[in-house]
Amino acid sequence: MQDRRLRLLTEGCLELADIVNKSRPQGVEMYYSDRMDYIYCTVAKASCTSWKRTLLMLTGKINKFQRPEQMSFAMAHELAKTYMNRMRLLRSDESRQWRFDDYFTFMFVREPLERLVSAYRFVFLDLPFVFKRMDIPIVRKYRPDDYNSNSTVKCYNVTFAEFVRWILDQHAAGLKLNRHWIPQYQLCRVCQIRYDYIGHYETLHRDADYVVDKLKSRLRNAEMRQRVDHVKFPADTGRRKSSAFLQQMYASVPAAHVQALYQLYALDYALFGFKHPNVTGFT
User: Fold this and answer.
1) Sequence-ordered list of residues with C-beta below 8 angstroms from that of 162, at least 6 positions apart, any chain
2) Rounded Cα distance, 46 and 206, in Å
3) 3-class DSSP state for residue 67?
4) What is the average pLDDT across 260-270?
């Protein structure tokens, strides 16, 4: 499966080089370890928080928890700044380029329309205030009569259809997209960097288990390997996955907007081998 994924990416990068190279990488966030010799490129809404939890546990410095899933969302993201070396931008200087040549490089991706549903749930249902009241500009643009600057409403109810329309309008205007829904290939410069492993959210636990075992094997210190031997990638939380909501969520989205999303994420579909989900009744 990895051979197919990597071959598809290599062939796609050659075939689509002119298009890919015109696109500027945005929101790049990478973590690396000189102890396990890995580089991980994060893709928002493709298990990146679970990966931060797991990588933190694999440092052997987190003694408060027995399992990665016991770590809160906020703690995982805060501790990542403290316990893991961090690269915000990819550069080609010698102090970093040798890592890309020698280290185990990996990333995880997700079917774009499902990832978008997950982003909507995350931004508007789970953490609406973390995202600087993103509901306000959307309501002001599409439902100005409902907006009241003096209102005591804590958070406006933004529909998924409005969210999709807003993203498409931002893209059409040439504005920078949020890293939670920007095309995934832009987050990781997949045609400029060699990746050893590309995991898919659809095969998350099988892929993640392989990567975790691979990382453990790269620890040169036997005592350290034993200390983190119990670390496993987080189990499912029991929350309904966004894939279960696809038909329901896209039922209110105009077919033309779904087609526009396919165009927006066309390179993700081509480079990572995703199939278009049938969310409009058309094939």
Assistant:
1) 138, 139, 142, 143
2) 14
3) coil
4) 97
State in Å, rounded, how far the first CA of the chain is from the last one: 26
Which range of residues forms the domain containing residue 63? Answer: 2-111+181-242
Residues 251 and 113: their CA atoms lie apart, in Å, by 13
- Residues 168 and 133 placed together within one structural domain of the fold: yes
160-172 vs 135-142: helix axis angle to the nearest 10? 90
Over residues 37-49, the pLDDT tens digits come to 999 999 999 999 9
Contact residues for 19 (Cβ-Cβ < 8 A; gap 6+): 267
Percent of residues, the chain, with pLDDT higher than 70: 88
Q: Are residues 44 and 79 in the same domain?
A: yes
Distance between CA atoms of residues 205 and 211, nearest Å: 10
Q: Collapsing DSSP states into helix, strand and coil, what is residue 231?
A: coil
Half-sphere exposure of residue 121: CA atoms within 13 angstroms, side-chain side: 16
